[in-house]
Specification:
Order of helices and strands: EEEEHEHEHEHHEHHEEHEHEHE
Radius of gyration: 18 Å
Bound molecules: heptadecanoic acid
Number of helices: 10
Largest sheet: 6 strands, mixed
Strand order of the largest sheet: 10-9-8-13-11-12
């Protein structure tokens, strides 16, 4: 069976080595500049622009045509989307999938609302790649991914919720908590795919402890962890070391966040996807 894995750019996955892959970019608008979140995007330049910009900023999801061109001419598509609780991305992908299947009878598209973003999407994509390489069929893969999704989670640790609140994606009352210097908000993707706060902490050390506690509460026990950071590799490495000191065999990878996640997680932000 010929498969293609497709995602939107919020997964921070830019390529796969063993399975055909495409990503549909979201866009970030800063003043009259549009940053397309594709592999060519200079994320540091965008973050620097955001730092100096005082006016309104926003984001936009991929449209139906972007999805159709990402599906290309694949027979079987597995498509991973950012939470429908915060973005129109999943709805556009569902419409595109319907059109694709009508245009090309026999082809199939599975669109997953990951109820999450960033590194939890990476875990799901890695699992999909493994299932394809193991020779599973379409229905078997969909079933296995749906089961795996039950035990993947997303945690985040942010120094500012300004962009989330300004774009109506987080409660202003939570945003106000991080106005103070050194305060970080630790939150999770809720079962409905929305932002839910679990703790707040002053300073990096306490934030790391709160992240570890939140992982334990969700039954983390040494499985895979994927950490994406916005200009904050030191905290990502410190978190990795803390996890390894408790679970020496943990499989942990660190990557820089791309455009969309950098815009919303903001400087210093960490996104943590893990298996419960
Ligand atoms: O314009 C659009 O359609 C994109 C809107 C995306 C909004 C949320 C992005 C969040 C990125 C911030 C922390 C993680 C929160 C995850 C909760 C499900 C990362």
């Amino acid at each position: 069976m010929n498969f293609k894995i497709v995602t939107d750019s919020s997964s921070d996955v830019q390529s796969l080595t063993q399975v055909p892959f495409a990503s549909a970019p979201l866009s970030i608008m800063v003043g009259d500049r549009v940053y397309v979140d594709d592999p060519e995007l200079d994320v540091s330049a965008m973050v620097a622009h955001l730092r100096s910009h005082r006016g309104k900023t926003s984001t936009a999801c991929p449209g139906l045509q972007d999805w159709l061109s990402a599906f290309g001419d694949a027979e079987n598509v597995l498509c991973f989307c950012i939470t429908s609780g915060l973005s129109g991305t999943y709805n556009a992908a569902k419409l595109a999938a319907q059109e694709y299947e009508e245009l090309h009878p026999g082809r199939r598209v599975f669109v997953m609302d990951t109820l999450s973003t960033g590194p939890e999407m990476r875990l799901l994509i890695e699992r999909a790649e493994g299932l394809i390489l193991a020779g599973q069929d379409f229905d078997g893969i969909v079933e296995a991914l749906t089961a795996y999704h039950q035990r993947t989670h997303l945690l985040f640790c942010l120094c500012s919720l300004h962009n989330l609140v300004a774009n109506g994606r987080a409660n202003p009352a939570i945003g106000a908590l991080v106005g103070l210097l050194g305060i970080r908000v630790i939150g999770v993707a809720s079962p409905k795919g929305e932002i839910e706060m679990v703790a707040k902490a002053r300073g990096d050390k306490k934030a790391l402890q709160a992240i570890l506690n939140a992982m334990r509460d969700r039954h983390y026990s040494g499985g895979r962890v994927r950490i994406d950071h916005c200009n904050n590799e030191p905290s990502a490495l410190a978190l990795r070391d803390r996890i390894l000191s408790h679970w020496p065999a943990a499989d942990i990878l660190i990557a820089p966040a791309r455009g969309l996640c950098s815009y919303y997680a903001e400087e210093g932000g960490l996104l943590i996807g893990f298996e419960g």
